[in-house]
Amino acid sequence: MVSRPKFEGRAEFEGKTIVVTGAGGGLGTAIVALLAQRGARVVGCDQSGEALNSPHLASRHAFDLLDRTSIDAAIAAILDRDGVPDILINNAGWTRAETLPALNSDKIEQELDLNLTGVMTFADPLVKAMATQGSGSIVFISSVNAIAHFGNPAYAAAKAGINAYAKAIAVELGRSGLRANVVCPGSIRTAAWDHRLAKDPEILGKLQRLYPLGRIVNASEVAEAVAFLASDRASGVTGVVMPVDAGLTAGCLPFIDDILGA
């Protein structure tokens, strides 16, 4: 059962409107459920209305991060229907070009547009509205790929850009009452792994030896980190890039095992 922190008798996010992008995905669904259970009014965004079927959503907006007109319309609809959010969770993202040989100009453009340009284009007006309002918390879902190279080079470059963008918000808009932080998950067992499992059904087992905890993280663990950074519990935390990766970026466990023989 998910815990529900309370402060002065109130649920943690009671009275808060939280916008979550990628709300219909594996991680997005976990984030939405956790925030709603802790009292938030959650506004879900995804590429299609069909993806936004969670009963935890109070409002739904479908748009395409690769389509500027679609983004602009969604921003206007959110502000009109739901008001300026108290918290913004930028979770949407996608990758398939897994190594340098898989890249071409079209894939580079698509993955940078989706994971960086589209995210910034959507977030920027909402962030500025939050700054005008004088308060707000923004959490970006990046990736361990933005910290060290684990493949997916175009996606990794885009996510590194997201880390930089979050720091820019933290530094430039902190005096306007905004905080911005980043969560960098390691591998999570969601539908994003289905294409890899189709090629190699044993791949999840192979992952275990790379992670100091002996396993990959689950979506609920990442959602907990997101909720913490979004909340008043992290009121003094801004500009932070937090790995939630079962120790992957702490060091190279196979080097210890295979070379040092520990």
From TrEMBL:
Pfam families listed in its UniProt record: adh_short_C2
GO molecular function per UniProt: oxidoreductase activity, acting on the CH-OH group of donors, NAD or NADP as acceptor
Record keywords, A-Z: Oxidoreductase
Keyword Flavoprotein: no
PANTHER family named in the record: 3-OXOACYL-[ACYL-CARRIER-PROTEIN] REDUCTASE, SHORT-CHAIN DEHYDROGENASES/REDUCTASES FAMILY MEMBER
Similarity comment: Belongs to the short-chain dehydrogenases/reductases (SDR) family.
Protein name: NAD(P)-dependent dehydrogenase (Short-subunit alcohol dehydrogenase family)
